[in-house]
Amino acid sequence: MTKAQDWNSRVLEVLEQTYPYDAKLMALFVQEGERQNQLYAERLNEFRKQVEEREGTA
Predict the structure, then answer these.
(1) Which of 6, 5, 8 is nearest to 16 (CA)?
(2) What is the pLDDT of residues 9-20, one digit of tens each?
(3) How many Å apart are CA 52 and CA 29, to the nearest integer?
(4) What is residue 40's DSSP assignment?
(5) Which phi and psi (to 5°) does residue 2 adopt?
(6) Cα(50)–Cα(20) distance, rounded to whole angstroms?
(7) What residues contact residue 52 under an 8 Å CB cut-off, 6+ apart?
(8) Is the pTM of this model over 0.70?
(9) Residue-wise pLDDT tens digits, 8-49
(10) Distance CA 25, CA 31 (A)
(11) Which has more confidence, 4 or 58?
């Protein structure tokens, strides 16, 4: 095996071993991002209600 073939084989092996971890980590980031977006939307709606209440009583 040439050095290039050996290097390619090693890189491929590392990628095959780390891909499931990377995919799980990315899924976690996406889920967390979606959760944060939902929390932000809920807080924004609550803020809008508060503003509407203040404007109604002002």
Answers:
(1) 8
(2) 898 888 888 888
(3) 34
(4) H
(5) -75, 170
(6) 45
(7) none
(8) no
(9) 889 888 888 888 888 888 899 999 999 999 999 999 999 999
(10) 10
(11) 4
Q: Are 9 and 1 spatial neighbours (Cβ–Cβ below 8 Å)?
A: yes
Which two structure tokens, joined as six digits, stand for 22? 């990377």
* DSSP assignment letter at 58: -
In this structure, which amino acid lies at residue 40? Answer: Y
- List all residues 6 or more positions away from 1 whose beta carbon is below 8 Å from its beta carbon: 9
Q: Name the residue with tokens 């980031």.
A: 29
C-alpha 21/C-alpha 28 separation (Å) is: 11
Q: Distance between CA atoms of 26 and 18, rounded to whole angstroms?
A: 12
